[in-house]
Amino acid sequence: MIFKRHRRLRGSDALRDLVRETYLQTSDLIYPLFIKEDIEEKQEVTSMPGVYQFPLNLLLIEVEEIVNLGIKSVILFGIPKEKDEIGSQASDVQGIVQRAIRLIKEAYPQLLVIADTCLCEFTSHGHCGLLKSDQVDNDSSLARLAEVAVSQARAGADIIAPSNAMDGFVYVIRQALDEAGFQNIPIMSYAIKFASSFYGPFRDAGESAPAFGNRKTYQMDPANRLEALREARSDEEEGADFLMVKPALAFLDIIRDLRGQTQLPIVAYNVSGEYAMIKAASQQGWIDEKSVVLETLLGIKRAGADLIITYFAKDLVRYLKEEE
Ligand code: PBG
After folding, report:
1. 209 CA to centre of own chain
2. Which residues does 5-aminolevulinate 2 bind (predicted)?
């Protein structure tokens, strides 16, 4: 027995480049945008340095920067002025998301606009579905979510991304989109969505924290791997075009397992808390932000994700340009 010389392939930049297995590219990235009704200036999210809530009148300045960087898709979250029990504003023709979609598509028709389809930013109680007494009711929520999806498609959304975690949402949304003539609008399902504490900063950004209780009756238990794969399988059967795993970092094993189960594109959501931790540590000077971001996103891709939704998208594009 002789020992093996793995270092042979690490001897120079050229050799390391030759055997590199995983690459990040700008076309892998989806950038989240928060649009808030009734503000005049952009507002930085305290727990997410570098991430802002935008008023409609400043949105296109941000989108121009995104397009110029070469980012090809964004996912939109809206914060309405008025919230009510059923999240009426989520499906309003003049709702904040619908207006944002029209504005962006008119100015940048080639940019892919993904609409997050959920109620939590729009309901007075902050839950993702409709309430029956103090329970989030599955089946009445479905009809409501289908209305939201169709109104987003009518406004011009290119992809519908339901994140509400009700059972059957892909099925009813697919049907509703087809009936409304949107057979060609894909569904990017938040298929495997864990009830995670890593969403904390997002709930500041989206002003969508539940007013009571938590989301554990509809989002998944982080302990469960087989259940995650069942969730993904049923969404695929119901007609999903993309499957998402969320969050990403504590669930890389799930991304890997899903890669073995599906031939659909896999999307990983590198969520707000994952962003906040890296930002906070690098602001303290405890880690090097650029190399940690590159390593993190590479890990998500290596686990099996095709696409990454990340608040680091703009930074990553700049890093990739520096590396060229
Ligand atoms: C809405 C939604 C959430 C996120 C994306 N869509 C929050 C939640 O479920 O409470 C979280 C994203 C992030 O943390 O970056 N349903």
Report:
1. 17
2. 272, 311
Confirm or reject: Cβ of 297 under 6 Å from ligand 1: no
Distance 166 CA to ligand 1 centre (A): 14
Q: Is the pLDDT of residue 188 over 90?
A: yes
Antiparallel, parallel or unpaired: β 266-270 and 307-310: parallel
Give residue-wise pLDDT tens across range 114-141.
999 999 999 999 999 999 998 999 999 9
Helix H or strand E encompassing 31: strand 29-36
Looking at ligand 1, which residue's alpha carbon is closest to its atom 8? 199
Q: Give the CA angle between residues 178, 173, 219 to the nearest 5°.
A: 165
Of the listed 246, 279, 301, 321, which one is catalytic?
246
Instruction: Give the CA count within 13 Å in the CB-facing half-sphere of 219.
Output: 23
Structural domains of the chain, with CATH? 21-322 (3.20.20.70)
Tokens 């340009």 locate to: 321
Phi, psi of 117 (to 5 degrees): -110, 100
Residue with CA closest to ligand 1 atom 11: 199
Contacts of 136 (CB under 8 A, 6+ apart): 127, 128, 129, 130, 217, 218
- Selection from 197, 198, 255, 196 nearest residue 225 by Cα: 255
Active site (annotated) includes residue 321: no
Residue 116 Cβ < 6 Å to ligand 1: yes
Helix (H, G, I), strand (E, B) or coil at 231: helix
**Which pTM does this prediction carry?**
0.97
163 lines ligand 1 (CB under 6 A): yes
Instruction: Say if ligand 1 is within 6 A of residue 274 CB.
Output: no
Is 246 among the catalytic positions?
yes
